[in-house]
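Example 9 (inverse folding). The structure is encoded as follows.
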C-alpha cells in the first residue's frame, strides 16, 4: 500500500545555463544554476537556495522533435513526463517521488544526499526529484537541450517532520535522458 506523506515538496528549476552556448552540433557541456527548493511539512516550511548542475547538449533537430523524443526518454526511464509545455520548451517532472531505487538501480547512483551512521541516505529516505529538460531553438536547425536534476531527501526516521536534506546530482540521470532522447553518450 502506498503511504501518503504529509509533505509537499516544490522544486523550482530555472534551466538557465551559465556561460556561452556550446560550439557545434552534438556538443555537450555542464552548467550550474541557482534556484529555491521549498518544503512544507505539518509544522511549517523550509526554504533553501541551492545550486544545481545540469547537462546541456546541442543537436541538429527541430524543437518539436526534441520535445517528443525527450517525453519518450522520460517514459523509457519510468519517469512520467507530467510537464510538457511547447510554449516554454520544457519537458519533465517537477514533483517525482522515489524511494530506494529507480528502475532497479539504487537512488545513490543518481543523487548524493549524504550518509547516516548506518547507510547512504539516498538509498534509505524518500527522495523528491525535480527533473526538467529545457529545449532552446538555435541557429541552422539546431536545438540546445538543458536538463537539470534537483532533489531533496526527507528524513522520516529522526522524528523531525521537517527533516529536508538537499541532494546533489551525479549527472547519471541527465546523461541517460540525453542518450535516450538525443543519441548523445
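The amino acid assigned to each position is listed next.
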Amino acid at each position: 500500500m502506498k503511504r501518503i506523506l504529509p509533505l509537499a515538496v516544490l522544486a523550482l528549476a530555472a534551466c538557465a545555463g551559465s556561460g556561452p552556448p556550446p560550439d557545434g552540433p552534438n556538443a555537450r557541456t555542464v552548467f550550474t544554476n541557482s534556484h529555491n527548493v521549498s518544503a512544507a511539512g505539518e509544522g511549517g516550511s523550509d526554504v533553501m537556495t541551492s545550486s544545481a548542475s545540469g547537462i546541456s547538449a546541442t543537436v541538429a533537430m527541430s524543437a518539436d522533435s526534441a520535445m517528443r523524443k525527450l517525453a519518450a526518454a522520460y517514459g523509457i526511464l519510468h519517469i512520467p513526463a507530467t510537464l510538457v509545455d511547447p510554449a516554454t520548451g520544457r519537458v519533465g517532472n517537477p514533483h517525482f517521488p522515489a524511494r530506494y531505487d529507480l528502475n532497479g538501480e539504487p537512488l545513490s547512483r543518481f543523487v548524493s544526499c549524504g550518509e547516516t551512521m548506518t547507510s547512504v541516505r539516498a538509498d534509505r529516505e524518500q527522495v523528491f526529484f525535480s527533473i526538467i529538460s529545457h529545449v532552446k531553438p538555435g541557429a541552422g536547425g539546431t536545438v540546445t537541450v538543458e536538463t537539470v536534476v534537483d532533489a531533496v531527501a526527507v528524513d522520516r526516521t529522526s522524528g523531525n517532520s521537517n527533516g529536508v536534506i538537499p541532494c546533489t546530482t551525479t549527472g547519471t540521470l541527465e546523461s541517460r535522458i540525453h542518450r535516450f532522447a538525443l543519441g548523445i553518450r
